[in-house]
Amino acid sequence: MLRAKELHPENILFTGSDGLLGTEFKKQFPLAIYTNRTDFDIENYSQISEYIIDKKIGIIIHAAAFTSPPKVDSNPLKAIDANIIGTSNVVKLCINNNIKLLYISTDYVFRGDHGNYSESDEVFPINKYAVSKLGGECAVKMYDNSLIIRTSFGPNIFPYEKAFIDQWTSRESVSEITAKIIKLLNSELTGIIHIGSKPRTVFEYAKSLDPSKDLKELSIKDINFVVPVDTSLDCSRFDSIINH
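The chain above was modelled as a monomer; its predicted structure follows.
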């Protein structure tokens, strides 16, 4: 395995490069290897195993996922294939090739009943999307040389006209989260780490992106799918490591 100080951008492979996080990573970290489902289908172990032959991959950042909670509710099989089986395949690939794995997970693995969750707090997902991401975490935990990154992010410009006033989060813009993940690439850190802002409502998060935006208030009681009330994260471990 390549040690952190020996890593170069071309030794880092990113899955799910067409997603929100992948698009931003390409801007901030352009020399990494970016894959999509056509050339690196995580549901096809033979294909992804063949893809890395002759490539000196030291880290895989695994961000590919089926991420829409309401769509997961209507198509749980797709979530099983992508988020659980696909992630398990990436874990197997890393084990078999001695590659470090950074798995992008979610704050939704928590029940959402009190917030400010630490890395050691009990997980209790309340929707099927979160269950599928926790399934991915279970696979990743089978591999010692891995880091689970629990976080929440959105576009750099808030895309909606309304935002929740009664849901609390540590969500940040994708550009801010990307910059923080990049800071971990040369770290030997393993286990679990939380990345995000101090607790705030989704409405406050949205206003922080554009204070002048005429944003309307929305309640989680007004939607037809289940979301947790408060999944804000205790990010002090990350802050202490980065500021050390």
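Residues 152 and 166 are 17 Å apart (CA to CA).
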